[in-house]
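Q: For a teaching session next week I want to show students how multiple molecules come together into a single three-dimensional assembly. I've collected the sequence lines for a complex. Could you give me the predicted C-alpha cells for the whole thing so I can convert them for display?
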Amino acid sequence: MSTHELYTIPAEHRTWDVDITGAARFTWEYDDGRDRLLSLYQKGKDKQWDATTRIDWSLDIDPSNALGMPVEAISIYGTDQWDRISGDQKAIDELSMHLNSWQFSQFLHGEQGAMICSARIVDSVPDLDSKFYAATQTMDEARHAETYSRFLQEKLGLLYPINTHLKALLDDTLTDSRWDMPYLGMQVLIEGLALAAFGVLRDMTSVALPKQILAYVMQDEARHVAFGRLALKDYYSQLTTAEREEREDFVVEGCYLMRDRFRMQEVWQNLGYDVQACLEAVKTAPFFQAYQSLLFQRIVPCVKDIGLWGEKVQKAYADMGVLDMAGVDLSALMKQDEDIADQVDVERLKALEEREVATSKVAVDTTIAVGTGSLAADSALTAAGPAAAMPA
Ligand SMILES: [Fe+2]
Ligand SMILES: [Fe+2]
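A: Of course. Below is the structure for the complete assembly, covering every listed component.
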C-alpha cells in the first residue's frame, strides 16, 4: 500500500527538491584526526543496531492512545478548548490519535531531513574525521527513518505531511553554502529539539513498543548532538564577531520557528477545531508549557557551549523562559540516554523470555491434556471391551 493512502491531509506526490549550493570537498590529509571525534566515530560504528531485530514489532498498541498517556498530556487539556470535548470519549480518542500521528510524522520527516543533512555534511565538511563521523550518522538516520516509518504505517496507520516550520528550517539549513550551517541547523537545533521531545515521551509512555523505539533512537541521537558540539566549538572560536553574529541570528530565528512548530496547527485545522483558539490554548495549557520549556533542555546548553552566547541569543532564551537551561549537563544526559536504552533492552529480553516460557507452558499443558484425554479414552475402551471400539 502507498504511504499516500495513509496521509490524513494529502502530501505532495512529487519530490521536494532543494537546490544545494556550495562545494563538495575532498581532502588528501588522511592522518591526524581529532581524538574525541575519532572516538565518537568508533562509537558510531560499534553501536549500530538493526530495527528489524532489536525492536519487538510483535507488540501491539492502541492507536487511539498509542503512548498510553493520561488525558492531562493532551496539549489543550485544561483550557476552554478542552471543555468542548471533555466527556466525549470518541472525540478525545480521535484527537489523541491525530496528535500522536502528527508528532511521530514530524519525527519521521525530521529523520529524513537528518539523513540528508548528514550526507550533506559528508560532502561539504573539510576534515576527514568529520566526514567519517557524519557517514556513520547518515546510516543512523536511515535506520531512524525506517523505524518511525514502520511504526506509523504498521501500527498507527495514519500520517501527517511535513509541518511548514520544520520544512522552512530544513530549507534554510540546506540552501546555505557555508559548511557549518547544516551542523547548526540540524545537529544543534532540529536534533536538539527532537532529542528533548523523544526524551519527554520516552519517560512518560507506559507502552513497550514506542518506549523501545524512542530509547534506541535516543541512544544514537545523543552522539549526533555531541558531534555538532565538538565540530562547531572548534570552528566558532575562530570566527569574526560579524560572522558569529550571523550564526546567532540564525539560532534565534530557528528557535522561534521550532517553538512554533510544536503547536500542531495542522491537527486543529484538519479536525475542524477553531485553529486560532487552539493555538492560543496550547500556549497557555499547563502541560504544554512545561513540555515546551523541556524541549529546549538540549539546545540551550549546546548553543552556549559552542560559543554562540551573545546578547541577542540570551535575550531570546530569556523571552522563551528557558535561559536557566544553559546550566544543564549535556554529557550527563547523554550517559543517561545510553543507560536507559540498555535498561529497555533488559526489559525487552525479559518480556520475550517470559512470553516464550508461557508459550511452551501452554504447549506442554495441551500435550498433557491430550495425553490424559487419550489415556482416559483408552481406559474407557478397555473397560467397555473390544466391542465398544467397533462402529455402531
Ligand atoms: Fe535520528
Ligand atoms: Fe540524529
